Amino acid sequence: MSGRDPRAPGWSRLLGRGLLTLAAVAFLTVFLLLPLATVFVEALRQGMGAFFASIGQDEARSAIALTLLVAAIAVPLNLVFGIAAAWVMARFEFRGKALLGAFIDLPFSVSPVVSGLVYVLLFGAQGWFGPWLESHGIGIIFAVPGLVLATMFITLPFVARELIPLMQAQGNEEEEAARVLGASGWQMFFRVTLPNIRWALLYGVLLCNARAMGEFGAVSVVSGHIRGLTTTIPLEVEMRYNEYDYVGAFAVASLLALLALLTLVVKSLLEWRYGGELALHAPGGR
User: Which end of the chain has a smaller Cβ tally under 10 Å, C or N?
Assistant: First the structure.
């Protein structure tokens, strides 16, 4: 009888594992790392002076400020909606629940361009509510409110879809116990529900924020491309590229890439620092 452990991986298994790992690394390198590195290489092609001159222009600074403003409005609103939607989906049974879930997922399946056109149809000069809005001096399309609405639509599912499966898996036993002990609704939420969902909530906010800052299609339709007023960072990149200002386009694009990388770093640091708590509050970890 052989003394070899039958559970030990054979050479064929090790070779297969190595080939799969190599294929995954090669795929990520070709389709992710190289394009990302190209953005920074092109941005710095003419040196740091040209790079800082490009991002220091009034149009670039205006695009950065507008992008941060839109995200600062859209993300908290979707945070509130995501918590409310997750609470309803996880804690109640009612007719039309599946339809509500489908509506939450709708922005995942609808083209961003189509969603932007819907807002133009509703609030544009020739839209359903456009003449009334114009007569009252209210600007939606080709203004900041239109950018916020389009961004909110695109980023609507992110927080909710992080919370719904977690809250369904956790159940409501602790909340019912708090209710029996006399806790009010707000006390139950802040002392029981929120601590249990805070990491999923934070993940959803990070993803929502990254998507909000990088949105192009819907924002492009409702912005009107008014430079210095309604151009976000992605729109500024497109406009500079179309003007053959390649260094400027890649310089501004590198800022967007840095914001995405910062989001990834924050997410990774949280996983590393609070890995035990993340596992504890994950479905099946309690």
Answer: N
Average pLDDT rounded to a whole number, residues 236-245: 92
Asked if pLDDT for residue 9 goes beyond 70, the answer is no
Residues 6+ apart with CB under 8 A from 97: 89
Q: What is the mean pLDDT of residues 166-194?
A: 83
In 3D space, the residue among 175, 173, 179 whose CA is nearest the CA of residue 192 turns out to be 175
Burial 212-228 (b: 16+ CB within 10 A, else e): bbbbbebbbbbbbeeee
Separation CA 159–CA 79 (nearest Å): 6
- Two tokens, residue 67: 């992008």
Of residues 130 and 237, which shows the higher confidence score?
Answer: 237
Strands (E), the chain: none
Comparing CA positions, the residue from 153, 143, 270 lying closest to residue 212 is: 153
Reported as a single tens digit per residue, the pLDDT across 60-77 is 999 999 999 999 999 999
Please indicate, yes or no, whether the overall pTM of this predicted structure exceeds 0.70: yes
Instruction: For the beta carbon of residue 245, count every other beta carbon within 10 angstroms.
Output: 15
Question: Which DSSP symbol is given to 94?
Answer: -
Q: What angle do helix axes 58-91 and 157-170 make, rounded to 10 degrees?
A: 30
Q: How many CB atoms lie within 10 A of CB 162?
A: 23
Segment holding 142, helix H or strand E: none
